[in-house]
């Protein structure tokens, strides 16, 4: 009876750690709803995501978010996920934070439940521990962002864990892996190499099980269950990718997939192996550097060397753990997770080497989850390999300590959401772009006094494009027929009309053509026609 009660207590503590992990996202949801889900005036990428969400809902565009390389990411799965809450709350800009929070909670919950089913009893608690530290190391500007390089972080986490579970024999999770992987690839094509590698890794194990069937190694019931999982996963893939293929075959100007293939065929990678390694190390060491204090190491001039040591040591630890686990139990979920992570470290590096254009770190921010999973696997391996951790008393102690640490970091993560200067651009729950608000109100009043009904916002300088997209988004929601400048139409996929009237955005200090009509000024922006 005492042992039974201790198991129940340990289980409750595991759920306590998971509940604490979700605290920041629950706080965002409660605060946002309590505030009335205000319609934030957003500029730049946030405005473009809103425009694409409405375009997807209307069936005009079935592509993913735009890329700075002038193609769109493969598919509209992210926009379909955004649509319900966006329209439920009256096309409010802050509804996206509700959606992002729910995506994160769903993915974290999926990983937690799979680890409870597939791994040993401490693994889900270790996951909660490192996930809480992971959130703290990335800061809320990343894990609460609806921008597509960031919103895929937790779906990819679910993808990799689900494919690992499939490889370990829990094939019922294959549809979840396909759904999360499809969402990630459609939202950011940079995740394709790693998702494909994880899928192939799991497929190899599935094929091995099918081959064992002919040798009588798999009972008929298990064989039928595998086939059922594959069937459901196939249907899931069709549902996710049908809109992509539909847009590809019906687009008169060439499909989005064709544009992506053309771009990668015509533009060669520009990064050297040395530069690729530098980026790879920088992103993969994000969690550890946040803990030990990267700024002091930077001042000492040894930051990159420390990052390199961290990543190399972590890979060596993973490899060593896999070797010992293989000798002990070749079917262990922990072993297969370690092998998967070694593969993903390699595909992460390959992804960077294929980058075209400027190597911006945010494009690969999702690599950071490899650090989270790696340390989870290393600690889980230690628990499995050393007899000292077999004690029930030791397990209960570890769970309680981990749960306490998760609670502390979750409180820090939750408080950090509001712990910023007033009207900070990194305050997602109350930030309005003042220029977009003032200029859109003025333009709306001006449009009301005119007979024309078709308008184009033209930024004279490229760095004014975020304000342009903010104005287009705000005015479009009011019902005005307004579009972006012709050389920015790749962002929205909406073509201009022949009779559109152009209004120009310029810095207040710039000269304007003689005879132009100055509409108004606000701060450092002038608008003329």
Low-confidence stretches at least 5 residues in length (pLDDT < 50)? 1-8
Give the H and E element order: HHHHHHHHHHHHHHHHHHHHHEHEHEEE
How helical, in percent, are the residues?
55-70%
Euclidean distance between termini CA atoms? 82 Å
- Our count of helices gives 23
Largest sheet, order of strands side by side? 2-1-3-5-4
How many whole angstroms does the radius of gyration measure? Answer: 25 Å
- The count of DSSP E runs of length 2 or more, i.e. the number of strands, is 5
Largest sheet, if any? 5 strands, mixed
Question: Beta-strand level of the residues, as a percent range?
Answer: under 5%
Q: What does the overall shape look like?
A: globular
Structural class: mainly alpha
Average pLDDT figure: 86
Structural summary, described in words:
This protein is mostly helical. 66% of the residues lie in helices and 5% in strands. It contains 23 helices and five strands. The protein has a five-stranded mixed sheet with strand order 2-1-3-5-4. Strand 1, helix 22 and strand 2 form a beta-alpha-beta unit. Helix 17 runs antiparallel to helix 18 (333-353). The longest helix has 31 residues, at 220-250. 44% of the residues are buried.
